[in-house]
Amino acid sequence: MSTVSEKRNIEDHKRRLLATKFELKRKLYKSLYRDVNLPTEVREKYLCKLARLPRNSSFTRLRNRCIFTGRSRAVYEKFRMSRIVFRSLANQGMLMGVKKASW
């Protein structure tokens, strides 16, 4: 595995840890900010608190990556690998329960 893909996977792992750490705070601030029954000053205060959270703590910034190559596109969630790696491992018979379709 190259150092670039390792770095990508490490960054992605850090983002996932940060997102789980701030998940509760982020949801709380968002719900209080969106509550129309609260006064405007209180809602603005929670909007500022939400803006002060780290950007990488948002779940929208997470990306599913291949654990072998670090590729971010065409990644199967179930296997956590890209379609290219999946095909090569399946052709070699390295994946349990996966075989080439024929009909």
From TrEMBL:
Primary location class: mitochondrion
List where in the cell it is found. Mitochondrion
Q: Which GO terms describe its biological process?
A: translation
Cite the Pfam families for this sequence: Ribosomal_S14 (PF00253)
- Mind listing the GO molecular function terms for this protein? structural constituent of ribosome
Tell me the keywords, alphabetical order: Mitochondrion, Ribonucleoprotein, Ribosomal protein
Question: GO CC terms for this protein?
Answer: mitochondrion; ribonucleoprotein complex; ribosome
Family to which this protein belongs: Belongs to the universal ribosomal protein uS14 family.
- State the name under which the record lists this protein: Small ribosomal subunit protein uS14m
